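[Archive record]
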Amino acid sequence: YWVGIIKLYNYLMKFFSSFFLILLLTYKSAFSGPFSDNLAQCMIKNISDTDNRILTNWIASVMVQHPQIDIEMSPSDIEFYNRSIALLFEDLLTVRCKQETAEALTFESEEAFASAFEVLGIVSMEKLIEHPTVISASENVINYIDLNKLSKIFE
């Protein structure tokens, strides 16, 4: 009986700690070509921890604007994150990855941008959700699941 509960508990801990990563990795871009891949790789190689922080904060500021999310952010904070990400994107496209940007635009059109930024966003979010504090926070949900109810699966 307890062996079953322990197995279930361990499974749930693994599930909740990797849930968001699974969601990100199963998402596939509608467009991907060699030049957009090169642009994405260039951006990934040329983004610092500070840049990654800007990106993840901007993603969060966008996500909290969805009507189903009950977290509020001030308009001035949203504007700050928008301005910060605009500067980062501008620098990535025109300085750090200028050659790759030109090639992607020339040979694959604007869709290459969407694809490259999707990859950059996924890599950024992977770094975010792999942090021990985030993993621990995601595993806290197990404290609210009635393991006795779940243990009836093994009866």
About this structure: Residues 16-30 have pLDDT under 50 and may be disordered.
